[in-house]
């Protein structure tokens, strides 16, 4: 499973996420990521915003309409063992 390092823009804290799924919508790449945990864990949707010097920059999807649309897409893409609540 691919892993990415996300740096929280408010705290500069580095968080390692596991990439659960990815998709593209209207030419924009989105990732469904989770913090590694046994059993239940929180998942987040990240949106690719730019590429700089071989680094890809992502931001959390915070717009409710965009988030709900992507949550539905990701719920269809994930395996039947994965339950998404949104």
Keywords for this structure?
single chain; 86 residues; alpha+beta; five-stranded antiparallel β-sheet; 16% helix; globular
Structure explained in plain terms:
- This protein has 86 residues and is an alpha+beta fold.
- Helices cover 16% and strands 47% of the residues.
- The protein has 1 helix and 5 strands; from the N terminus they run E-E-E-E-E-H.
- A 5-stranded antiparallel sheet has the order 1-2-3-4-5, covered by helices on one side.
- The longest helix is centred in the last third of the chain and has 14 residues.
- The chain is globular and about 35 Å long.
- The two termini are 23 Å apart.
Concise summary:
The chain is α+β, with helices and mostly antiparallel strands. The protein has one helix and five strands, in the order βββββα.
Order of helices and strands: EEEEEH
Rg of Cα set: 13 Å
Tally of strands: 5
Task: Specify the structural class.
Answer: alpha+beta
Helix content: 10-25%
Morphology: globular
Physical arrangement of strands within the biggest beta sheet:
1-2-3-4-5
User: What is the averaged pLDDT score?
Assistant: 84
Specify the number of helices.
1
